Amino acid sequence: MFVALTALYYFWTLSFKSSLPKDATTLVVGRDFLQFWMYGRAAWAPNPGRFYDPQLYNDALTALLGPYPGQNWPYAPSIMLFTAPFGRLPYLAALGTWIVLGLAAFIGVGLRLFSCRRALVAALLSPAALLCLISGQTSFITAPILLTIFTTLDRRPGLAGVLIGVLTTKPQLGLLFPVLLVASGRWRVFMIAATTSLLIVGLTTALFGTQVWIDFVSKGLAAQRLVVADPERLFTPFIPTFFVNVRGVGASYGLATIIQACATIFALGAVAFAGRYCKDADPQYYAGLFLASSICAVPYFMSYDTLALTCLAVLLLANRKLDTRGCVLAKLVFWLPLLQMVLGTWYIPGPALIPAAFAADMLWRMMHASGLQQYNARSPQEDAVPA
Asked: Which domain holds residue 349?
């Protein structure tokens, strides 16, 4: 019902008066995919890094679409390696291909992970999936990558390392992987991931030059910092992080940064502890802790990027691995994007606590399964070695 009503409303508000259909916010159909398409077009043009200048980028959009809401280029230059083929297609054809390939990847991996097909349908019809579809984002591709990593960490470390390296194109999703790999002693995966990352950077530099990286650091990151600060609170309904939740109630940038730093320390500590002491815990608990902690660790994490965590929550529910408390938290994770949208619209904080609580619950389960709670509960006399 949620998906049907949202889809009906969205299509009802579309306007076909311009060269490309636009929604009620005057953004083109596919919204964020427009950025990926522009990266793809820039890959075939000289000096692609010039579009990291917001003025030049918006001038280019105006030339293509007429007057258009202000945009910026938020991704590293390496994204052009993957979007270049789409830049050779007309926009709507590129968008259709992008969606079909993303859904194929999502469903293909989902069919291997979900023994219950109804659970896969639930994940496919989740708020995070719907937001990904409307926005033309990468989550239908990155979510399968993240879930595959945790099923191959020990069985196929080479594949896991390559996939982690690929995620550097969207670094907020895999920011905690170095912590996890070092703490758990998975050095082979770490080295393969680092090598893959360096190869991607090197290939990007060879194809597009060093200037594109200079433009990204000097112009692109500066523009992105302004987006993260969000003084007008435009993104509050779409980012379920501590930083944005606190900024949404009108707190200062400094206070929001301090609270976010505390959340980041919690996330780093939880992942490091699990990697060190719960290495052999259930991979699904492992993945749940990591994915939930990833949301806590950064100030900028869009709701559609929670799709991997949504899938994990549904998978745990379907496999009956949760007690009553865990089931409630998993369902809150499922509805997290919608809760953030509703409460964020009215600048009401709270949704950021959901992934934090879910991460804490996963860590507790991993400790329990590893016997750490029983060990900590023992007295010093019980640990004494008899003479």
From this structure: 21-370
Can you name the residues that pair with 22 across neighbouring β-strands?
Answer: 15, 28
pTM over 0.70: yes
The C-alpha atoms of residue 62 and residue 57 are separated, in whole angstroms, by 9
Counting the structural domains of the chain, the total is 1
What digits encode the pLDDT tens for the residues 338-377? 999 999 999 999 999 999 999 999 999 999 887 765 444 4
Residue 3 lies in a domain: no
Q: Looking at the domain assignment, is residue 384 inside a domain?
A: no
Residue 321 lies in a domain: yes
DSSP label of 367: H
Helix, coil or strand: residue 28: strand
pLDDT tens-place string over residues 78-128: 999 999 999 999 999 999 999 999 999 999 999 999 999 999 999 999 999
> Shortest CA distance to 71 belongs to which of 187, 180, 234?
234
Instruction: Single out the residue of 343, 305, 332 nearest to residue 135, CA to CA.
Output: 305
d(CA 127, CA 139): 12
Cα–Cα–Cα angle for 257, 261, 264, rounded to 5 degrees: 135
Tell me, yes or no, whether 375 lies in a domain.
no
Q: How far apart are CA 141 and CA 137, in angstroms?
A: 9
Contacts of 113 (CB under 8 A, 6+ apart): 147, 151, 311, 315
The answer to whether the beta carbons of residues 350 and 248 sit under 8 Å apart is no
Number of H helices, E strands in the chain: 22, 0
CA–CA separation, 288 and 293 (whole Å): 8
- Distance of alpha carbon 44 from alpha carbon 36, whole angstroms: 13
Tell me which residue of 108, 102, 67 sits closest to 86, measured CA to CA: 102
Torsion 84-88-92-97 (CA) sign: negative
Do 306 and 330 contact (CB within 8 A), yes or no? no
